[in-house]
């Protein structure tokens, strides 16, 4: 049996993801987390009327990140992730999870070379690509603004 | 009723964004970090071409709570800064997400200090 | 005596005179719970890290093996074996506890097969008592090969779960008082790579190497597939086992009821462990508990143990390498 034949056999035999179920869970839990975010945002706007929409938005992010970090620390977030898939990865709580989980995992190697050094081993690409994109967009807008 | 409708829209848009993410995972075997990067860049791109605000007006937290909102803030900060000069064009993005990033790092540090990762039962 | 290119027939006597097994929490809740010598009640086993726990697990397993066989550590000619971690940390670090020569081995999850084969050769070279010990731990393997434990990821449908556990066997050249299984021959496997590159589907990557080793063994030893009561592979999981059966079926006819897989035997269906168990400790844990005890009781007379391994690392996958796999076959008979 050559490589091509074998990979065809594997392709046929491999069990498929239960597509419908994963999509449904991602939709429900992702939607729920966003709804909680909206609730937090509305509550903050009512509590701190002096803040403008931008600050309320940033503060909502902070609260959600806190919740995501806390649930990760309590060992709950990965259980949610088992069912929710992208539904718990994509919300900002999932970003917090990807920052906290490696930091927790490596805290046994010490604070500096373990916890701090590994904190962005998964979320690092998000920061790097995000900052690079924002600089690029800023520079393009600046150049366009010159004319 | 007004509130109910808003929350329903948030739920639907948020759920839809995550469903697209799940489709990507199912079809391309992407890892979570790749999905996060893809959606972050998508958010930044939508803001850069000026489309993000239409989705945000409709879906509110449904599009800003997912990582697309983080990308939007980065892009929006840079666009805002570009009006003032090249220096602000480069720093505006990170300044706009300073709160979220500081929160992630500070909470992450404290929580990782006091908690232990455990394998979950099978 | 070497026969053919890869097979060794042992005319000398290689007895497996005792075994010991320690299982993790979930393995203890699985199908084979009654066969393990000891089941730990939490994953860290009272240690500060999971790596330290794996070292302690090995130490305890070897100590209870010495106790089971009523042998002192200074009578042991060599402790050989391995695990999945970089630099074989659990193996080397646990060996410092014993006054015996140590030899670390690596064939990924096929290390137990390599250990039994090497042990048999050592006995042929004059050693009297050799301990073969391999282990794996879910938490240490996750950290090294995959993601942090607390990261919320969804396992793909082909994923397997690394077994937490240690199995160790004492090989002796002298016939023990009680009747016990012997190693009668073994076949060293070749590294086979069919170009698959999904690190979450190792069963499919390992099945061709397993097929190659099994057919080579049967050919070179000159026996048919029904010579063995059971051909038991290491950690192919459900998918790998199915692929292996369909390949073997073409050559030997219906063999499915004679083929089983240690990974498929460990967990219950409701434990949601994907396609089954995996890891260097998977085949050793199952052999040293269930299979060995069944052989002693006469339930199985002749088995071919074929531990299987995928020789990948996290970095090799990221560099775009496909997954090379290996399997060693060891014939064990009463």
Structure description:
The complex is a heterotrimer of chains A (147), B (122) and C (334). By secondary structure, chain A is mostly helical. Chain A has 8 helices and no strands. Chain A has one domain. In chain A, α3 packs parallel to α6 and α6 runs antiparallel to α7. The longest helix of chain A has 29 residues. The radius of gyration of chain A is 21 Å and the shape is extended. The relative contact order of chain B is 0.10. Chain B is an all-alpha fold and 122 residues long. Chain B has one domain. Chain C has 2 domains: 158 residues, Stage V sporulation protein AD (Peroxisomal Thiolase, Chain A, domain 1), CATH 3.40.47.40; 152 residues, Stage V sporulation protein AD (Peroxisomal Thiolase, Chain A, domain 1), CATH 3.40.47. Chain C has a 7-stranded mixed beta sheet, with helices on both faces. A 6-stranded mixed beta sheet of chain C has the order 4-3-9-7-5-6, sandwiched between helices. Chain C starts with a strand and ends with a strand. At the A-C interface, α1, α4 and α6 of A face α7 of C.
Compose a concise summary of this entry.
The complex is a heterotrimer of chains A (about 150), B (about 120) and C (about 325). With about 150 residues, chain A is mainly alpha-helical.
What are the salient characteristics of this protein?
heterotrimer, B: 122 residues, mainly alpha, C: 334 residues, alpha/beta, Peroxisomal Thiolase, Chain A, domain 1, 2 domains, 7-stranded mixed β-sheet, 6-stranded mixed β-sheet, 17 strands
Structural class of chain B: mainly alpha
Greatest contact pair?
Answer: A-B, 77 and 80 residues
Helix content of chain C: 25-40%
- Whole-number mean pLDDT of chain C: 94
Number of domain modules of chain C: 2
Task: Set down the secondary structure blueprint.
The complex is a heterotrimer of chains A (147), B (122) and C (334).
Chain A: H1 3-13, H2 19-47, H3 53-73, H4 77-84, H5 86-89, H6 92-105, H7 111-118, H8 124-146
Chain B: H1 2-28, H2 32-48, H3 52-59, H4 61-64, H5 67-82, H6 86-96, H7 98-114
Helix pairs in contact in B: 2-5, 5-6
Chain C: E1 2-3, E2 7-9, E3 15-23, H1 25-28, E4 38-39, H2 50-68, E5 78-82, H3 89-95, E6 102-104, H4 111-124, E7 129-136, H5 138-145, E8 161-162, E9 165-172, E10 182-187, H6 202-221, E11 230-233, H7 237-252, E12 259-261, H8 262-266, E13 277-278, H9 280-296, E14 302-306, E15 308-310, H10 314-318, E16 325-327, E17 329-333
Parallel strand pairs in C: 3-4, 5-6, 5-7, 8-13, 11-12, 11-14
Antiparallel strand pairs in C: 1-2, 2-10, 3-9, 7-9, 10-17, 14-17, 15-16
Helix pairs in contact in C: 2-3, 6-7
